[in-house]
Design brief:
Blueprint: E1 9-16, E2 25-26, H1 31-36, E3 48-49, E4 55-56, H2 61-68, E5 72-79, H3 87-96, H4 107-115, E6 125-128, E7 144-146, H5 149-154, H6 161-178, H7 180-201, H8 203-207, H9 218-231, E8 238-244, H10 252-276, E9 283-289, E10 308-313, E11 320-322, E12 343-344, H11 345-357, H12 362-365
Parallel strand pairs: 1-8, 1-9, 5-11, 5-12, 6-7, 6-8
Antiparallel strand pairs: 2-4, 3-4, 5-10, 9-10
């Protein structure tokens, strides 16, 4: 329980493609930044400084405002040894906490099993998006996955094309790693749970009113759906959403500024909506991405790198800078082209699990890692 007597809730936002952390929180007083980024570098007079070394991207003004209000913890230099540059493998590592082998259980799936061991609530974990993120997958753990809350709630069931598509995506993702048998067992166990969840979820839009006008982009819609389900008080403890488009090898400008606008605006609207309903004090958001981008741009964008960044956001968060910003001096570049990570992502997971959700972390994250102190 949180200090207000409510159960703590975690919202996870995945930035798919590898967010360019160097252009999100910018070391604007270091000439190496400008020398390395002739094409995608942000002009200094447009940046939003937070101290004499770092500045937010100009399109992340809402994020900066929340940071200054003390509600954003920036985890700098997050990653792991021998960072994978494959999207699929890197996400797999983040989702399962298994950097050295193919994992079969997601870290949040394990967490949901701890939160609801008797499977009393099929909505303990809810994903907004197609398919099921591997982070939420664990045998026997029911997860509801919702593409569009309005249409989902209006269906009499989800036996139709959408459900078949979701199951096919799920089978294709996991059968090669763990075999078709366990996948089919999992689907048969959870299929009825998903239908039960659908019947309950359709109540959420009917109960919701708000003065906040969310934008029409995908992450804003997902966050609005999360707000509606959270405010319906259906017992969901872990929400998951995805914001895609961060693989900016080309056209990083204007693509990345647009993504920063969508993400930071959606997050600000989401927390304003919760505050308006007196429902923000037990919600923490974790924003992560699979890897950072390389130091030098490629003339149009940036290629896969390491040493990225994550965010913890919410009223319970003690805002500020955590861990260490990677050195951007050329002599320190990993492989001669990357920022080196300074903090293991499993330490952040352990921090959230133990300090926020109240769950023992070692079995979920696969060991003991240095934790931060980002909660009030």
């Amino acid at each position: 329980m949180t200090g207000n007597g409510k159960q703590p809730v975690l919202v996870v936002v995945q930035l798919s493609g590898g967010n360019d952390f160097l252009n999100t929180l910018i070391p604007y007083t270091n000439p190496v930044y400008y020398d390395s980024r002739k094409t995608v570098g942000i002009p200094e007079d447009q940046m939003l400084p937070i101290n004499n070394a770092l500045a937010f991207h100009p399109q992340a003004a809402p994020l900066k405002e929340m940071f200054e209000q003390g509600n954003v913890a920036v985890v700098q230099g997050i990653g792991y040894e021998n960072s994978s540059r494959s999207h699929f493998r890197a996400m797999d590592i983040w989702h399962t906490c298994e950097p050295d082998k193919i994992g079969t259980e997601g870290w949040l799936g394990r967490a949901i099993r701890e939160l609801d061991p008797k499977k009393e609530n099929v909505l303990t974990g809810v994903n907004f998006g197609r398919g099921l993120p591997r982070a939420l997958s664990a045998p026997g753990v029911p997860i509801s996955s919702v593409g569009d809350l309005d249409n989902y709630g209006l269906m009499t069931g989800i036996e139709g094309e959408y459900r078949n598509q979701a199951l096919e995506i799920f089978k294709e993702m996991y059968a090669p790693a763990i075999g078709a048998g366990p996948v089919m067992d999992y689907l048969s166990q959870t299929g009825m749970d998903v239908l039960r969840g659908a019947d309950i979820l359709k109540e959420a839009p009917a109960r919701y009113t708000s003065d906040v006008e969310y934008a029409g982009n995908s992450i804003a819609k997902s966050l609005r759906d999360i707000a509606r389900v959270h405010l319906a008080d259906l017992g969901t403890r872990i929400f998951y959403a995805n914001h895609g488009g961060y693989d900016n090898h080309a056209n990083e400008y204007p693509d990345h500024p647009r993504l920063m606008t969508e993400l930071s605006g959606g997050i600000m609207d989401f927390f304003q909506d919760l505050r308006d309903h007196n429902a923000s004090d037990n919600v923490t958001m974790l924003v992560f991405t699979e890897f950072g981008r390389r130091m030098r741009d490629n003339g149009s964008g940036t290629d896969h790198g390491s040493g990225g960044g994550a965010f913890l956001i919410g009223d319970p968060v003690k805002g500020g800078l955590y861990a260490e910003y990677p050195s951007i001096e050329p002599a320190d570049w990993l492989y001669g082209e990357d920022m080196e990570h300074t903090y293991d992502y499993r330490g952040l997971y352990a921090t959230v699990l133990e300090q926020w959700l109240g769950i023992a972390a070692p079995e979920i994250v696969g060991g003991t890692y240095e934790q931060l102190a980002p909660f009030k």
